[in-house]
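Hi support team,

I'm filing this because I wasn't sure whether my run with iron/sulfur cluster finished correctly. The job status page said complete, but I'd like someone to confirm that the output block is well-formed before I use it downstream. Pasting the exact inputs I used:
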Amino acid sequence: MSDKNLTRRVFLQNLTMAVPAGALASQTARAGDVPHIDEADPLAQGLGYVHDASTVDSSNPQTSRYEAGQLCANCALLSGEEGAAWRPCQIFPGKLVNANGWCSAWVPKG
Ligand code: SF4
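And here is everything the job wrote out:
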């Protein structure tokens, strides 16, 4: 094996270990290929995710930490293209969340 091939192999091994599979998938897939999260998805339900933050029922203990103004669009866990309606979120690898959505894992942007 040449030094060039060995270097490439080591680089790819390090990349595989450094990047979670979901994050890598979300980086390599085009936005049009990635499905939107379903509000009925068990993880989405567990975190009280909704596509429209204005519909959060803050009387529900599961979503009681919601405060007006919190949106996926201003959550530190959202990535992707600023201004896009549907974007990747670290909580839901391989799915897109609505920029106007919300879930109980919301973290303010720093
Ligand atoms: Fe939206 Fe943040 Fe919850 Fe992801 S973690 S669904 S970006 S509020």
